[in-house]
Design the sequence.
């Protein structure tokens, strides 16, 4: 018996699992993979699809140091081994070694790109491994010589007395090893404001345009080659909120935001990649967003709040949310009031301030801005920290405000009087401008406690607004 525990190592992502083993005079029993308990203890929800066993007839059998293009959970079904793992991924820990003796009480989670090897310490060892991709003879491996002097694995049985294959004897030394390239990351919608911010933080990512994969055309998703892809970040969407209320706009919103996202979700399940998708405060009706007066500020909609979209855009995004939610490896980031390098509310207000205009701005919608650089940073934080998969609300932090108050903040920063901004209601604004406006949630505040619990700290929206305006020339 023993408590299930997950321990870290000097190799990032390489985790040692102390298993609970139930034994008596008849033998023992253990749960070698128990998704609920192990992920709760800190093991990634890596989604194994294949279980393999390797029999080692005698003590001294030594398997080569192989880094494979998938994650794996290794353990011992019978016997005892000495395990050695070497980080063969690019980065500061390239060449770092971890060793561990394994019997039925211990397992090791080996992330993609970490070289895995072992030596049987007794006869009749049965070695077990679960992997999250199907074995293929065409898979690319990265190998390291078992006798490499710089890594210096302290093999209990000297290699001169061990049983090795000729192939393992011939593998290169560390100085000749090319680090295993990470699984490819694709960014859809790379030309948009969020897509540009993502690429700025992911220089190795591949930008995928509509010519290669068009969310409005499910056939292009079905035919796309996802081999070698580890993560797909979907920053593409149809965000024409008002146009979605027209017949043509409605069809396009549903094609891109719902049908296309459902096809992408099916591809994620089929190919096993992590899907990152972005959604909106528009999936809520804005009627109740959790005012907590004791806390001083509205706490906002939680991730599990009931979906109740008011307009076509919100309805299509809500349908996309539901499709993504069934993908085993997904991050769904809901956000609001997005600002980036392109046309947006803040730039419009700055231009009006610079031109001497006295605008009338809606004052009955409450929320927080989200800057694309921060949304991209939150995305990388979730991916890099291997946070639990699921839905997260991500906006800037600080006290919620209205569009009119934000406009006044912009005017003040540009040297204009805040009195030059006049409040109006959403209904009066639509009537005054004769515009067909989609219904909008009056309360767009999203609760940030879940993403903050992962270690991400949302910057204050007014501080980020000031920094953003500092970078804008006269418009």
Sequence:
């Amino acid at each position: 018996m023993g408590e299930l525990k997950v321990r870290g190592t000097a190799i990032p992502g390489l985790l040692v699992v102390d298993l609970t083993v139930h034994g008596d005079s008849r033998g023992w029993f253990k749960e070698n993979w128990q998704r609920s308990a192990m992920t709760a203890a800190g093991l990634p929800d890596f989604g194994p699809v294949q279980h393999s066993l390797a029999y080692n007839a005698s003590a001294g059998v030594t398997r080569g140091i192989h880094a494979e293009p998938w994650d794996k959970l290794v353990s011992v079904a019978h016997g005892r081994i000495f395990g050695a793992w070497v980080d063969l991924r690019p980065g500061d820990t390239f060449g770092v070694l971890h060793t561990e003796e394994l019997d039925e009480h211990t397992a090791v989670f080996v992330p993609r790109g970490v070289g895995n090897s072992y030596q049987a310490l007794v006869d009749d060892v049965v070695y077990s491994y679960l992997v999250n991709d199907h074995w293929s003879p065409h898979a690319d491996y990265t190998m390291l010589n078992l006798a490499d002097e710089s890594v210096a694995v302290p093999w209990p049985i000297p290699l001169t007395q061990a049983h090795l294959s000729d192939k393992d004897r011939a593998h290169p030394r560390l100085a000749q090893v090319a680090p295993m390239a990470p699984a490819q990351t694709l960014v859809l919608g790379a030309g948009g404001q969020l897509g540009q911010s993502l690429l700025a933080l992911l220089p190795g990512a591949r930008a995928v345009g509509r010519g290669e994969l068009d969310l409005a055309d499910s056939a292009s998703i079905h035919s796309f080659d996802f081999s070698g892809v580890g993560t797909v970040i979907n920053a593409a969407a149809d965000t024409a909120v008002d146009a979605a209320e027209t017949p043509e706009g409605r069809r396009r919103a549903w094609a891109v935001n719902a049908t296309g996202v459902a096809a992408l979700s099916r591809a994620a399940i089929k190919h096993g990649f992590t899907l990152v998708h972005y959604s909106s405060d528009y999936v809520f009706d804005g009627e109740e967003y959790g005012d907590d007066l004791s806390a001083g500020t509205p706490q906002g909609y939680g991730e599990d709040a009931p979906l109740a979209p008011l307009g076509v855009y919100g309805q299509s995004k809500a349908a996309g949310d539901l499709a993504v939610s069934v993908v085993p490896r997904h991050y769904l980031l809901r956000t609001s009031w997005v600002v980036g390098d392109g046309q947006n509310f803040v730039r419009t207000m700055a231009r009006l301030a610079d031109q001497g205009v006295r605008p009338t701005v809606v004052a009955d919608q409450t929320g927080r801005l989200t800057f694309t650089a921060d949304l991209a940073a939150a995305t990388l934080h979730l991916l890099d920290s291997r946070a639990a998969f699921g839905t997260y609300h991500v906006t800037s932090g600080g006290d919620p405000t209205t569009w009119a108050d934000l406009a006044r903040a912009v005017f003040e920063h540009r040297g204009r009087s805040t009195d030059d901004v006049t409040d109006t209601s959403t209904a009066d604004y639509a009537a005054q401008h004769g515009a067909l406006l989609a219904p909008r949630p009056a309360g767009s505040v999203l609760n940030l406690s879940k993403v903050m619990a992962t270690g991400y700290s949302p910057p204050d929206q007014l501080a980020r607004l000031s920094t953003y305006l500092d970078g804008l020339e006269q418009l």
The first helix runs from residue 35 to 41. The mean pLDDT is 93.
